[in-house]
Amino acid sequence: MLVPTTSATEARRSTGRIIAFGIAAIVGVLLIAAVLLFLNLPDANAFNAKVEQIFVENNALTGAEDIRLLEILAQSGTAFSEVLVSYRTIIFVLLVFATALLLASLIFLVTIIALNRRMGEIERAGIQVSSLLISREERVVYINNMEFKLTEAAIETLSVLAEARMDEDVLSGAELEAMVSGKNAADCDEASGATRIKRLRDTLGNQLVSELLIKTVARRGYMLAIDKDVIRMV
């Protein structure tokens, strides 16, 4: 059975390119916004320059009250300059924080997309079984090191399916019932084999595992949808 595969390397490269372009776009937009914002902010020394200009242009302001007024103006300019510098620092910190949040959001979004794509690949390809170990004596099956306790009837049904898969055979319901019960296939019917398959799936419990592990072949019968080389029986 051929299973469609995709290149994990190509997926990683594609995801890496998306992240790189996204990071570059975010950093570029925020950098442009920061430059425009800082260019349009008033100069921190603008107020002091105006006060200095008043001093220079009004030599007649020599009275004590006039000088006191100019000193107050100069102190106000210094306070304004300090406040504006602090505003610049706050704006810079907020821009860095916004950049970090946007980058984190981009990475989470790409990760979610990659996971959804991977889940879609798994759904299309079916369950990937790297090992299937059946222990008839203990009535246990290990699927990818996951342990499943089975009933005696279920373990016999699974064992027959495993043997048929190693021989690359597809068993009809009647053939499956005959091999498990030891009867002649002519004396068995399809319904009995179908019932055994249903009980095996119910015993496995996990619907995803049972439905994808035991494949129904239209008008032919049943088989294990795994590589025969991974099957071991003890």
SSE layout and pairing:
Blueprint lengths: L7 H33 L5 H12 L6 H62 L6 E4 L4 E4 L2 E4 L2 H15 L6 H9 L8 H15 L2 H7 E4 L3 E4 L6 E3 L1
Parallel strand pairs: 1-6
Antiparallel strand pairs: 1-2, 2-3, 4-5
Helix pairs in contact: 1-3, 2-3, 4-5, 4-6, 5-6, 6-7
Task: Report on this structure.
The chain is of the alpha+beta class. It has 2 domains: 118 residues; 102 residues, Arc Repressor Mutant, subunit A (Orthogonal Bundle), CATH 1.10.10. 65% of the residues lie in helices and 10% in strands. It contains 7 helices and 6 strands; from the N terminus they run αααβββααααβββ. The strands form 2 sheets. A 4-stranded mixed sheet has the order 3-2-1-6, covered by helices on one side. It has a two-stranded antiparallel ribbon with strand order 4-5. Strand 4 and strand 5 form a beta hairpin. Helix 1 runs antiparallel to helix 3. It is rod-shaped and about 125 Å long. The chain starts with 7 loop residues before the first helix and ends with a strand.
Task: Based on the model shown, name its key terms.
234 residues; alpha+beta; 2 domains; four-stranded mixed beta sheet; 7 helices; 6 strands; rod-shaped; disordered N terminus
Number of helical elements: 7
Hey, roughly how much beta strand do the residues contain?
5-15%
Q: What distance separates the N and C termini?
A: 25 Å
Structural class: alpha+beta
Number of strands: 6
Could you spell the SSE succession in H and E letters? Answer: HHHEEEHHHHEEE
Spatial ordering of strands, largest sheet: 3-2-1-6
Rg (CA only): 38 Å
Shape: rod-shaped
Largest sheet: 4 strands, mixed
Mean pLDDT, to the nearest integer, reads: 77
Helix content: 55-70%
Low-confidence stretches: 1-8
Domain count: 2
